[in-house]
Specification:
- Helix 13 runs antiparallel to helix 14 (about 375-400).
- With about 450 residues, the chain is mainly alpha-helical.
- The protein is built from 16 helices and no strands.
- The two termini are about 30 Å apart.
């Protein structure tokens, strides 16, 4: 049985405490008043030589107040200035919520991705992977608390993340009424959002509970009945997963941009989820091996996990390019605005993500020999994980904080908080059962796996 070391446990608590402090600081420092934001914009305009939106608004307002324009123009200029300041103020208020949500979703999707990978191994009756099943089960333990946290943040954040949660958007009497959002209100409403979220989480967690239960029961069973039960429920889960993962990606990610949609989006999020999960599987496996655990896992298993990391990095790139190229080529205004925003305000993370998620894995993991070198896989894995965090960052931030983005205390603290929670839950789950499945039908084949 694996024992959760005190050092690692303490490390996870330190991460959580540092994360909580940083997240708290992020929320406190983001509460800027109208006057604070005005001064901020004036300072930015002065820094840029007086050329900028804030300077333009101020110039108009001052010119109008000196009688250089008609009264109605002065009023319009003042209104435009006020609207601009309020817009920037709202973006600044959104940042800590967005940073928290990006990190929460990132770690949740790792747990969901590994559960899907685990289910595929069982359904396909794979012979190479059973020695890694307990690590996968441990990682999937984070899914229930992680997904509930994501849903809770989404609901409590409200229109800080999802503009359609603002009741004025669907109120024809309001000046903020949005006809397109109102047309989608049959799907995009808070009640439906919460109910769908609970159905997703309930279905995923039920499968995880029973798959784990049958897996442990199989260790001491005298026949393969638990294995057969697990196989049957896995087939049903995979159908449920394909539907709910797509709907989850629409609700929890795509709806931050309610005017935009992509028919590839569910697959795109799935690819990011899958490659991140497999990468974390490789990192945890290598960590456990350095602690003298998983002696039955050899370099051939590592090679296969790294092959999946490489393959799904290519799959992610195929989907990223397909989505980007089709939208760019058709050049339809309501579609292309998604990428225009990201190119104009997020060029470094947007293009950097492609290098980290495609170019780097190609260079690092294409060679078969490199996939068997632990430190090489760790290095490639850390870059891939950072790249996919930035991928989620690019999906959320442009819609919520616009050009007010940064990788600072709110973002780093949120990562630390959920990394600490993930480590604590996953490694606690690993102590609950032996790290090798005992009577699994393909155990011997897996232990002796080689090329």
């Amino acid at each position: 049985m694996y024992t959760f070391s005190n050092k690692l446990k303490t490390f996870s608590f330190v991460l959580m405490v540092l994360g909580l402090l940083g997240v708290g600081y992020g929320f406190i420092s983001s509460h800027k008043s109208f006057e604070d934001v005005e001064h901020l914009l004036e300072a930015e305009a002065a820094h840029h030589g007086g050329h900028g939106e804030a300077a333009d608004h101020d110039t108009h307002a001052k010119a109008d107040s000196h009688g250089d324009a008609h009264g109605s123009d002065a009023h319009a200029g003042a209104d435009a200035h006020k609207e601009h300041v309020e817009h920037v103020m709202h973006q600044i208020h959104n940042r800590p919520w967005s940073a928290l949500y990006v990190a929460a979703f990132f770690f949740m999707m790792i747990a969901l991705g590994i559960l899907a990978f685990y289910a595929i191994q069982i359904a396909s009756q794979a012979g190479w992977s059973p020695v890694l099943f307990r690590v996968m089960e441990g990682m999937s333990a984070y899914l229930l608390p992680g997904a509930l946290i994501v849903l809770a943040i989404a609901v409590f954040a409200g229109d800080h993340l999802f503009v359609w949660m603002n009741p004025d958007m669907v109120n024809p009497e309001s000046e903020h009424f949005d006809k397109l959002v109102a047309g989608k209100s049959g799907w995009l409403n808070k009640t439906g959002f919460i109910i769908r979220g609970l159905i997703f989480i309930g279905g995923w967690s039920l499968y995880r509970h029973f798959a784990r239960k049958f897996s442990i029961a199989q260790d001491t069973a005298e026949d393969n009945s638990n294995f057969k039960k697990s196989f049957r429920i896995t087939a049903g889960f995979l159908v449920f997963f394909i539907y709910t993962e797509s709907m989850m990606s629409w609700d929890w990610i795509m709806s931050v941009d309610p005017h935009w949609f992509s028919t590839l989006f569910g697959w795109y999020v799935f690819a990011s989820m899958f490659v991140s999960a497999i990468t974390v599987l490789a990192l945890i496996t290598l960590y456990l091996k350095t602690k003298g655990q998983l002696e039955f896992v050899n370099e051939n298993h590592l090679h296969d996990v790294a092959k999946f990391m490489f393959a799904f990095s290519i799959f992610w790139t195929y989907l990223w390019f397909s989505q980007f190229m089709l939208i760019w080529y058709s050049n339809i205004p309501e579609e292309v605005t998604y990428f225009v925003t990201r190119f104009s305000d997020y060029k470094l993370p947007f293009l950097g993500m492609v290098v980290m998620n495609f170019v780097f894995p190609i260079l690092m993991l294409m060679n078969a020999d490199y996939k068997r070198v632990p430190w090489f896989v760790v290095m490639a894995g850390l870059v891939i994980l950072a790249g996919h965090y930035i991928d989620i960052f690019n999906m959320i931030m442009p819609a919520t904080v616009g050009d007010r983005w940064s990788i600072g205390i709110p973002e780093i603290s949120s990562i630390l908080l959920f990394a600490g929670l993930f480590i604590f839950i996953v490694f606690t789950a690993l102590t609950k059962a032996p790290l090798l499945v005992k009577r699994y039908p393909f155990r011997k084949e897996s232990e002796e796996f080689h090329y």
